[in-house]
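Hi Y.,

Following your request, here is the sequence exactly as I used it, all 102 residues.
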Amino acid sequence: MPKLEIKSKSTLSRAEVAERLIALGQALASGSEVELGSGGDSIEIAVPEQVRWELEIEVDGDEIEIEIEIHWRDDPPAEPEAKSAVPAKAVRRGRPRKSAAK
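Below is the corresponding structure, written out as C-alpha cells. Let me know if you'd prefer a different format.
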C-alpha cells in the first residue's frame, strides 16, 4: 500500500475527546473494519485480531502528554508475540510535578 498520512490537530473539550475515543473503541470492538478521519478526509482500515499497543504518558513541568499508538502489519507474523504476565512499570520522564504548599 502506498504511504498515506492524515494528520489533524485541534482543541477539544474533554467530553469531545471522550466521544472520539469511545467511537474508536466501539468500531474496534464491533468488527475488523474501522473508518477513521478528520475534517472531511477519511479512510477505512481493516484491523486484525492482534495488534501492538503503546501507551506513553509524559509529564514535563506543567505540560502533560498522553500518546496512544496501535500498530500492525498487513501480513501479520506466523506466531503472535507472547503476552507478558508481568505488567509494565510506569516510567515517568521529565521533571516531577510541583505541588503548591497549603
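Residues 60 and 94 are 5 Å apart (CA to CA).

Thanks again,
Q.
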